[in-house]
Specification:
It is built from ten helices and twelve strands. It has 289 residues and is an alpha/beta fold. The protein folds into two domains: 140 residues, NAD(P)-binding Rossmann-like Domain (Rossmann fold), CATH 3.40.50; 140 residues, 2-Layer Sandwich (Dihydrodipicolinate Reductase, domain 2), CATH 3.30.360. The strands form two sheets. It has a six-stranded parallel beta sheet, sandwiched between helices. Helix 1 runs parallel beside helix 2, helix 6 runs parallel beside helix 8 and helix 6 packs antiparallel against helix 9. The chain is globular and about 60 Å long. 48% of the residues are buried. The model has no long low-confidence stretch (mean pLDDT 95).
Length: 289
């Protein structure tokens, strides 16, 4: 039985997500809600044959029965309101906004621990890209400090991203600590205006206790990068991790799938890919019960 899902938010993120959901055999896209009647995303959703509305989430819930999960691709402020409607209706949600209300989840690290959560937060694109590597290091070594630098194409950062850069850095740093396992962490984001636009690039720096074998760290990182690449094919190490004394440096690149967003928008693509990964696991568990 297909797992019935809907999307609220018909902008770039919601539209890209729609294409990814459409490829999943165990997910059925039954509705897309937005607030702009002239939205290109809603026009594309209509061609998918699902219910669409420009009157927001409330109208979708009134017209579409038996929705199991809603992806929220709106804004942090809107998610706070949407969550109330969803909880009243007994519908679970995956939050792609910076609202950070539900438990923070990075699929290969801690999704299994939160499959019963009513609202799952995907934190930020920077967290989705770098927390796996920090967690991989932490599972073989104590980590007093982690720092990441996420560099994205300026063209891939819309008004919402720019307005929430401070929250991006705070939320990503919290994710490095609470999900990744670093004692303390810091996150930086750089918007690169280069033409042609660059792919998303991430640098992870981590300090570790002395005495851990370098090969053990490299193996742990390699394994988790492979885990992420199963649902984000463009996710890869740019080079072998560098280990010098108590400092580990890992260089990552994320190339988008190009479903709707350009391939340089790996920072956005990794969020939609993570959202689908969460939904697929929840769908599998639902069919097993």
């Amino acid at each position: 039985m297909a797992f019935r899902v809907a999307i609220v938010g018909s902008g770039n993120i919601g539209t890209d997500l729609m294409y990814k959901v459409g490829r999943c055999r165990n997910l059925e896209l039954v509705g897309v809600a937005g607030i702009d009647p002239n939205s290109e995303g809603l026009a594309r959703a209509r061609r998918f044959g699902c219910f669409t509305t420009h009157r927001g989430l409330a109208d979708l819930l009134e017209n579409v029965p038996d929705v199991a999960l809603v992806f929220d691709a709106t804004s942090a402020h809107a998610h706070e309101k949407n969550l109330g409607l969803l909880q009243d209706a007994g519908i679970r949600s995956v939050d792609l906004t910076p609202a950070s209300i539900g438990p923070p989840v990075v699929p290969p690290v801690n999704l299994q621990a939160h499959t019963n959560a009513v609202d799952i937060s995907l934190i930020t694109c920077g967290a989705q890209a770098t927390v796996p590597v920090v967690a991989a290091i932490r599972r073989v070594a104590h980590m007093p400090y982690a720092e990441i630098v996420a560099t994205i194409a300026s063209k891939s950062a819309g008004p919402g991203t720019r307005q929430n850069i401070d929250e991006f850095t705070r939320a990503t740093a919290r994710g490095l600590e609470t999900v990744g396992g670093a004692d303390q962490a810091k996150a930086l984001i750089i918007l690169n205006p280069a033409e042609p636009p660059i792919m998303m690039r991430n640098t992870v720096y981590a300090t570790i206790d002395d005495g851990v074998e370098a090969d053990l760290i490299r193996q742990s990182i390699s394994e988790i990068v492979a885990d992420v690449a199963r649902y984000v094919p463009g996710y890869r190490l740019k080079a072998a991790p560098i280990i010098e004394g108590d400092l580990v440096t890992a260089l990552l690149e994320v190339t988008g799938a190009g479903d709707y967003l350009p391939i340089y928008a790996g920072n956005l693509d990794i969020m939609t890919s993570a959202a689908v990964r969460v939904a697929e696991l929840l769908a599998t568990e639902s069919n097993e019960t």
